[in-house]
Amino acid sequence: MNLLSVAAAFGVVTALFQTDAGARLIGLPHGGTVTSWVPILMFTVLFGLSMDYEVFLLARVREDWLATGDAKGSVIRGLGATGRVITSAAAIMVAVFVGFALDPDVTVKTLGIGMAVAVLIDATIVRMVLVPATMALIGRVNWWLPSWLDRLLPHIEGRTRPATPTPERQLLNA
Hints:
Elements: H1 2-17, H2 20-25, H3 37-68, H4 71-101, H5 106-138, H6 147-152, H7 167-173
Helix pairs in contact: 1-3, 1-5, 3-4, 3-5, 4-5
């Protein structure tokens, strides 16, 4: 999912900064090249931001899943609990990056527009639509884990192994 946001942002940056028509839209006399380190910086910053949104969303969905065992309802309740916070945080980040886009330096402008578009796409389309839709369609399989890996991973539920089977363990045993 992270690659969707990055690819869309790279496409917008290419269209705006490397074509004459796009450059005129943002007040540049002609298209040019994108500085080599801008895509690398965009990728790393976006990856960190999008993983933050993802962990925040999935933590709420998983908590509800462990409590109820209702895969689709957990996605709905998790998204309802985190949607406003994720959208608000993304709006703040977009505003910051738009501030960079107002800089007269073309490299800073490129980074600002690219990151603003990337965060906007990631927080709205990817994290608020595609991830929940995919999780709702996949259902219980979201939480499937091979038994050998389950034995290796730590269980952070107050004790080493749950006394009663959690919904995901019941799925593994089925």
